[in-house]
Amino acid sequence: MPTSRKGGGRPSPDAVSAVGLRKSYGDKVVLDGIDLTIPAGTVFALLGPNGAGKTTAVKILSTLVSADAGRIHVGGHDLAADPQAVRAAIGVTGQFSAVDGLITGEENMLLMADLHHLSRREGQQVTAELLDRFDLTDAAKKPAATYSGGMKRRLDIAMTLVGNPRIIFLDEPTTGLDPRSRHNMWQIIRQLVSDGVTVFLTTQYLDEADELADRIAVLNDGKIAAEGTADELKRIVPGGHIRLRFTDPAAYRSAASTLGEVTRDDEALALQIPSDGSQRELRALLDWLDVAGVEADELTVHTPDLDDVFFAMTGSKQPAQAAQSKETVR
């Protein structure tokens, strides 16, 4: 059984297991018999277009919505037979903050402690510890409505942790946050996993999944279109290539005529060579250039990234601004 690259602990039982999970709303099939297996102490990211069913999956696994079919275990408990035990093992932070803006951050935390039936002393202790952990102590006495977006997200997760859940569902937790707040949230998620918590993450940011997740699944048309580590997913998508650019037309023509399968760009004096981006292929090409006495002014390696995987698996068109993973060797 795999372990988290963040936690580094021993193999653990599955935190979440779902087999044949189905859900429809009227004639609309949202989840069409999907299977999910999430080892404890790892980050699992579920990707998919808007409306693909990501939030529905979270709501089912967190007992908020009933599935039409499927065998589901969360935290070692059968969700259908013992939903209360599942609720005791999990925490949920949705796309929209559950923070009450009319009361202070501290009061939000104490209210959550009351809901978990902690004693007054325990509630105050846990509140103080979590406010400090999430760098909210200085703002604890201020109305939550005055908090920035990032502060509200941190408070939201702190409230989720009051019950010490071992499995946390984060449904698009960084939507609407600025880059600094997003990176701060990433650090919080890494810390949670290092403490042994399992994180089920849905996100619209592919770099977020790439950065955090041990395993990623792409949900499309109610089915899991692909699943694996980020590197495994990137390898299933074609399109990797090496691009050589020349300033000397003679060198360009010599390389174009000698190299085998290439795509020419005569105007830019550039050649595109299919490649998996491996060190072996790159070394072979550099050796050929040396032997042939051909000097390229720029060599660029392009390997498919999660953007490529997402658009290939969902049939979406890639936006022009989507970033490409490239390394340039001069």
Under CATH, the topology of the largest domain can be stated as Rossmann fold
Percentage beta strand: 25-35%
CATH class assignment of the largest domain: Alpha Beta
Rg over CA atoms: 24 Å
* Tally of individual helices: 11
Q: Label the overall shape.
A: elongated
Architecture per CATH nomenclature, i.e. the level-2 architecture of the largest domain = 3-Layer(aba) Sandwich
Structural class determined from secondary elements: alpha/beta
Supply the CATH superfamily name of the largest domain. Answer: P-loop containing nucleotide triphosphate hydrolases
Q: What is the average of the pLDDT values?
A: 86
Distance from first to last alpha carbon: 42 Å
Total DSSP E strands: 15
Succession of helices and strands: EEEHEEHEHHHEHEHEEHEHEEHEHE
Notes on the structure:
- This protein is an alpha/beta fold and 330 residues long.
- The strands form 3 sheets. The chain has a 6-stranded mixed sheet with strand order 6-7-8-3-9-10, with helices on both faces.
- The protein starts with 13 loop residues before the first strand and ends with a strand.
- β1 and β2 (28-39) form a beta hairpin.
- The protein folds into 2 domains: 14-99 and 147-235, 3-Layer(aba) Sandwich (Rossmann fold); 241-329.
- The protein has helices at residues 54-61, 83-89, 105-115, 120-133, 149-160, 179-194, 206-212, 230-235, 249-258, 279-292, 306-314, and strands spanning 14-25, 28-39, 43-47, 69-74, 77-78, 90-93, 167-171, 198-202, 215-220, 223-228, 241-245, 263-265, 270-274, 298-302, 326-329.
- Helix content is 35%, strand content 26%.
- α3 (105-115) packs across α4 (120-133) and α5 runs parallel beside α6 (179-194).
- The relative contact order is 0.13.
- The chain has 11 helices and 15 strands.
- Mean pLDDT is 86; it is low at 1-12 and 318-330.
